[in-house]
Amino acid sequence: MMWGMVILPTLGPLHLMYPRYNAASVLRQIEHRRTSTAYFASYSPEGLEQGLWRDRNDLVLFELRPLVDRGHIRLVGLGENAEVLQHEAELFAEYLGQLPAGEEAKRNLAEAEREVWAYLSTPRLPQELASAGFVEGLRERLGQVVEIAGEGPATGFRAERMAQVARKLQEDGDAPVVLVDVLDYPELLRHFPNAEGPLDLEPSEEERARALMDRAWRLDEEDEWRSLLAQLMEIARPEARFLAAQIYLAAGQTSDALALLEDLAKDDFSQPEYLPGYLLARLGQLYDLAGNRERAIRSYRGVLALSWAPAEAREIAQAGMRTPFRVEG
């Protein structure tokens, strides 16, 4: 049995919901262990290298990628064929619907999966994610999926994948820091029940800034927009300025939003990797609202010329190329 291992669950886009366990929090958990290498149980080496995580909106990896590129940390994928096997789960529901009486099973499966996401959508503290109560609650809900559809394609062969990862970690003989998708988390813990999980660490300034920006990404009518805007303007990051422009736009102050994004576009806005696509797409829309179709087209083309951009940003750009953007209502 291995001792000293650290297993940290990652939540993909759900990190936006966790102010005390956001993407920057996970990075802090890694740094706290003073390691130069982190392993990822839910990705293959090829998946990490090719950036397949970007289309899954895996926020932790967006946070880690600059550090990896600068050589500050090494990230090692452990999941052999992980992406191919996980894709089986995405195809399984379609397969179910083609079977006799498959529609009922498909509905039951969808309901079980909704219960999993509802459980995970409740914000928790880091130490709660490491608790036996949380892990058992998630394991129980994931077990409902297995009861309906079996262990295999419906779960992306989760048990098999995590067993392979466990063997690799045991062969290594070290006490590593391991990142794992939260859906794979309970299964990996079966192999390492004594592994240490997330700790209750004092939030850093980076975590506080990340939590504030995450709140702005989820902007709601009940939020204190003026206060949120003022706090964003105090964060010296391109993403914070972009989100401040989003608030101006939501408030109908399009000229303020345009001025802010034009100023931001003169500087380096290459990180995080999702920002260039979103910024150029929004800039195109604001130019359309200002009646400057030529600049709007130029911005939309900028999105489509990127080697990668979020699907939403590309859709905005493609729509903007066809028809000038207008605010409805």
Topology of helices and strands:
Blueprint (H helix, E strand, L loop, with lengths): L5 E5 L12 H10 L4 E4 L4 H6 L8 H11 L4 E4 L4 H16 L4 H19 L5 H4 L2 H18 L8 H15 L4 E5 L3 H7 L13 H13 L7 H9 L4 H13 L3 H12 L9 H15 L3 H13 L5 H12 L7
Parallel strand pairs: 1-4, 2-3, 2-4
Helix pairs in contact: 1-3, 1-10, 4-5, 5-7, 11-12, 12-13, 13-14, 14-15, 14-16, 15-16
Can you tell me about this structure?
The protein is mainly α and 329 residues long. The chain has 2 domains: 201 residues, no CATH class; 104 residues, Tetratricopeptide repeat domain (Serine Threonine Protein Phosphatase 5, Tetratricopeptide repeat). Helices cover 59% and strands 5% of the residues. The chain has a 4-stranded parallel sheet, sandwiched between helices. α5 packs antiparallel against α7, α13 crosses α14 and α15 packs antiparallel against α16. It is globular and about 60 Å long. The termini are far apart.
Mean pLDDT: 93
The total count of helices amounts to 16
Q: Could you give the count of β-strands?
A: 4
Strand order of the largest sheet: 1-4-2-3
Specify the overall morphology.
Answer: globular
- What is the total domain count? 2
Low-confidence stretches: none
Taking all Cα atoms into account, the compactness measure Rg is 21 Å
Order of helices and strands: EHEHHEHHHHHEHHHHHHHH
Q: Which percent bin holds the helix content?
A: 55-70%
Strand residues, percent: 5-15%
Category by helix and strand content:
mainly alpha
The largest sheet is:
4 strands, parallel
End-to-end distance = 63 Å
